[in-house]
Write a structure and sequence with these properties.
3-stranded antiparallel sheet, alpha+beta
Length: 253
């Protein structure tokens, strides 16, 4: 039943049921890690749905009983009311499960992408250049269902606001929050060591990454290219591209 309702509702909501692409600027040799919400997060959502369905069902039953006690002819009002209640509970059930299934956290060496939501789909990219504090949070219900959240606070700018509560991104429903927190802190330390924010340092860091990942065969042996050579080639390529762009601009003028 759920899969049938899912196929019926997804096209109507115009929501993509697929893994999001890495953030712009991601290179093949860089880190790419995709995290999903834990099963405990779904259990909490289903617990919330049961509470809502019980309260809604009790209200509909009480209203139906009151109308029938006044006049049995009001049965023609009770039946549509019950059908609407059942339909609303079914749609809420599907959307709560979809909220779990369509929650994606994509971590790269440069940024974090969060996609969440069903009715209101949000896809936010947070650049680690703005990240400051990384912490793990867990409320009573989250503790009971066995998951935690990882929150990342940023310094200014609103691009990382995934929760609508200031400059903060939240990875909700993680089963391994300490591991994710350590990973993000490692990325932040790497960027700060490389001098994040200085264009020259960024280019040197990129050349070092390429130098560690790219190699060529020579006489049957693997010969690694030094980072300094790759940096020089990279600088020459940038200068050549800039010259071509300038010539194109002059020609179009």
């Amino acid at each position: 039943m759920y899969e049938w309702l899912k196929k019926l509702i997804l096209p109507w909501l115009r929501v993509e049921d697929s893994e999001p692409h890495p953030p712009a600027g991601h290179e093949p040799y860089e880190r790419l890690r995709i995290e999903r919400a834990a099963p405990g997060f779904l259990h909490l959502r289903m617990f919330e749905w049961r509470l809502y369905a019980a309260a809604w069902g009790f209200g509909v039953a009480a209203a139906s009983a009151a109308m029938l006690s006044i006049d049995a002819q009001l049965l023609w009002l009770v039946i549509p009311l019950v059908l609407v209640a059942i339909g609303k509970a079914a749609v809420l059930y599907v959307t709560m499960r979809l909220d779990y299934e369509m929650r994606w956290y994509v971590i790269t060496d440069r940024s974090l992408l969060i996609r969440e939501g069903v009715w209101n789909v949000q896809e936010i990219t947070l650049t680690f250049a703005n990240a400051q504090n990384v912490r793990v949070t867990q409320g009573p219900l989250e503790r009971w269902f066995g998951f935690s959240n990882v929150e990342i606070e940023t310094a200014g700018g609103g691009s990382g606001d995934a929760t609508g509560a200031g400059h903060r991104a939240r990875l909700r429903g993680l089963e391994n929050p300490q591991e994710i927190r350590s990973l993000i802190l490692e990325i932040l330390r790497t960027h700060r060591t490389a001098g994040l924010g200085d264009p020259d340092d960024l280019e040197r860091s990129r050349a070092a990454l390429i130098g560690s990942a790219v190699s060529q065969r020579s006489g049957g042996a693997m010969l690694s290219l030094p980072a300094s050579v790759l940096q020089e080639v990279w600088s020459e390529a940038r200068a050549l591209r800039s010259a071509v762009q300038n010539n194109d601009t002059k020609a179009s003028a």
